[in-house]
Amino acid sequence: MSVAKLIVQNFRNLATKSISLHPELNFILGDNGSGKSSLLEAIFFIGHGKSFRTSKIEHLACYNEDVFTVSVKDNNDLQLGLSKDIRLGITNIKINGDRHTRLSDLASNIAVQIITPESFKLFFGGPKERRRFIDLGMFHVKQDFSHQWREFSRVLKQRNACIRSGTDKAILSYWSTVFCELSVKVAHVRQTYVESLIEELRVWLALLLPELVDLVNVQYLQGWPQAKELSEILDKNFEREKSYGYSLYGAHKFDVKFLLGKQVIDTQLSRGQQKLFLLALTFAQAKLISRVNRVKPILLIDDIGAELDVNSRLSLARAINHLDCQVIITAIEENVLAPFISLFEENSGSNKEDKYKMFHVKQGDVVEK
């Protein structure tokens, strides 16, 4: 899908506005604090039910407002809406005017991925962001995964409760057996997805970081030692888990390591190269999602000028030209966009509307240029 129209009300510092977007490429220009990142945040919010900038939902509402709303209409006239009443703690979800109760109902209709200046620091800093990234792709690509993950999470909670309460060993043994079975199933599905992602990643590295294509090694760690049975690991670590009060091994503890040779990639690459690598990985996942035909992903890239020089931006522009999805990019200065604009106008002739739209944001007001 692509967002044809974005409507925001009482969201951050954005004026109540209806914005018509280009189905392929959109540039959002504005000074720091103008509201350009808030536009991306609004789209991210309707795709994830949360912000990428804050965990405090009350920060998303305009000053002195208790209720805010974000809605989008896609290129097929599908209407998605999400509103929050902060004071009452009520969430309203609508799809084509019908009320829904689960955020996953929204997410099944819109796949939003984002790259910010902070993304690569979080991504390479610890497993939490890598897990979130992989499972986002799996939600859209592996259609049974959301059901598998809900069932696994339910069993994980039961097992953790047994560990904390010191319940009867027979009951813990039962939940441990189910936990092991589901961990193996989830780990297998994840492994097949990661293998597909690695294959697609090579395609995008060839465009963005060709010198690294044959040097990058990706390791999938399933959440317990590969050569051992999970049940054996749990038996050996019973006292350790008991002291922690939760499950230390299993499918929830998986990780994906990105290596250059034998070293973790972030210690070997410059900040600009790290950002290009994460972009290549995001584009690879976007391609896998788009092949499923449920939804086409929407890619949000905040502050394109950060960390990337002119040559890197030109390589990125060429890579974006190979994507089959909607891309929305923010920048502080228009000259940062020169490599993109020159390439896309060259490909589309004199009529830029064939290829992109440009917007300017000032004090929360969005104007198409």
Lay out the secondary structure.
Blueprint: E1 3-9, E2 17-20, E3 25-29, H1 36-48, E4 67-74, E5 79-85, E6 90-95, E7 98-100, H2 103-107, E8 112-115, H3 119-125, H4 127-141, H5 145-165, H6 169-208, E9 216-221, H7 230-236, H8 238-244, E10 255-260, E11 263-264, H9 271-292, E12 298-301, H10 310-320, E13 326-331, H11 338-348, E14 357-362, E15 365-368
Parallel strand pairs: 3-13, 3-14, 8-12, 12-13
Antiparallel strand pairs: 1-2, 1-4, 4-5, 5-6, 6-7, 9-10, 10-11, 14-15
Helix pairs in contact: 3-4, 5-6, 6-9, 10-11
Function: The RecF protein is involved in DNA metabolism; it is required for DNA replication and normal SOS inducibility. RecF binds preferentially to single-stranded, linear DNA. It also seems to bind ATP.
Family: Belongs to the RecF family.
Protein name: DNA replication and repair protein RecF
Q: What's the arrangement of strands in the largest beta sheet?
A: 2-1-4-5-6-7
Structural class: alpha/beta
CATH architecture verdict of the domain at 1-111 and 306-369: 3-Layer(aba) Sandwich
What do we call the CATH topology of the domain at 1-111 and 306-369?
Rossmann fold
How many strand elements?
Answer: 15
The run of helices and strands is EEEHEEEEHEHHHHEHHEEHEHEHEE
Shape: globular
Rg is 22 Å
Classified in CATH, the superfamily of the domain at 1-111 and 306-369 is P-loop containing nucleotide triphosphate hydrolases
Strand content: 15-25%
Helix content: 40-55%
For the report, how would you describe the main beta sheet?
A: 6 strands, antiparallel
CATH class of the domain at 1-111 and 306-369: Alpha Beta
Straight-line N-to-C gap: 24 Å
